[in-house]
Amino acid sequence: MTYQGDPSTLFDSKEDESHETKLIELSACNDNHCLVRSGNWLLLVNASIEFHLMNLFTGKRVDLPAMNSSGRSKHENMDSSRETKKYSNKLKENIKCIKSAVLWINERTGDYVVAWVLRQNYLFSYKKGDDSWSRLILQGRDSRGFFDMAYKNSKLYVFTTDHYIRIFDFSRVFPKEEEGIKNPYWNHPFDFVEQPWEYIWRRKIAIGKSGEVLVILSLKEKKYEEKLLFYVFKMNLESGKWERVYSIGDGHDEMLIFGHGVTIRAPVRDGGDGVKSDSICFVEDDVWEDSDHLSKCGVFDLATSKITWPKNLLIDQTHWCFPRFA
After folding, report:
1. Number of folded domains in the chain?
2. 92: pLDDT confidence band, cut at 50, 70 and 90?
């Protein structure tokens, strides 16, 4: 889906055709920056550093507390202190300094969790029912920062810049980091070393159906010819070693939208039309920007390391990837 004003466009990769549609309320929100989506919901922030959730198709809106709210937080109080003003000023300088974000929402109950990272250095979260934002602080090691996050089953998984996987448990009243044996990745950093012909573009994590963490690298290979590739890694829980894998899930029925944070059931398992299992869907910013393909939207097949590009779908502004639905 691409949003370039009213109307917007739905591109169906299976049929290789586009359809115009109208996104309720979004045309009145042109000053908003979309950080992430979950299901039909978007996490938006505007130039005044006001966060809110919006249902893409119904227009329902949920406002989140201001960064300078004075209520009691569940980890470190984000009141109207000098520190909070410093964070707010950094955001006002450039909203895009938010490097990673997570949104989880239960469509049935309305419960939700939001987390985002400022400049790779500061991690903030908000859970429905909190009075204010919380700054989550890693325990133990002196981590340099944050690459990415994923959320599943009341746990926030954080991929740090020193290549560790850290876990916060949100099932408690106060979000608490799981240390030692409670975190199977605690003493096992992701130790991939790129070769001279490999150039990493993005580092992301996702949680599979089994609950295991996947590390996904978007990179360019310049060996015999230039290729855009995705590598997927999973830790062997017995040896503690990270191993490259060539399938998304053990049942070979999962696929991944790059940056989505969790795997999803593939529309097609074997053969047939549409996106099959063990595929990675991606959009413009997910691959090296010097690619000469006119369409910056594609599907990567892990088994063959090949990319299927749709027709010339030019993406200039906001875009999202959705599983196809009737």
Report:
1. 2
2. low
90-94, 248-252, 284-288: range with lowest mean pLDDT? 90-94
* DSSP structure class, residue 66: P
Tokens 């300088």 map to which residue? 93
Tokens 């419960």, residue located: 111
Domain that holds residue 271: 191-326
Q: Are 160 and 262 contained in the same domain? A: no
Nearest to 176 by CA among 212, 122, 138: 138
**pLDDT tens-digit readout, 256-293:** 988 889 998 876 655 555 678 899 988 878 888 766 66
Same domain? 218 vs 92? no
Least confident range from 23-32, 148-157, 160-169, 228-237: namely: 23-32
How would residue 40 be classed by pLDDT, with cut points 50, 70 and 90? confident
Residue at a domain's end among 127, 155, 189: 189
N residues, the chain: 326
pLDDT score at 224? 81
Asked if 195 and 135 sit in the same domain, the reply is no
| pLDDT at res. 282 | 87
Q: Within a domain: residue 55?
A: no
Query: Would 14 be classed as within a structural domain?
Result: no
Same domain for 141 and 203, yes or no, is no
Give the separation between CA 255 and CA 286, rounded to whole angstroms.
16
Q: Which residue from 134, 131, 136 is spatially nearest to 149, judged by alpha carbons?
A: 136
Handedness of CA 242, 246, 251, 255 (dihedral sign): positive
Which residues share a beta bridge with 44? 34, 52
Separation between Cα atoms, residue 54 and residue 34, nearest integer Å? 10
Q: Distance between CA atoms of 171 and 139, rounded to whole angstroms?
A: 18
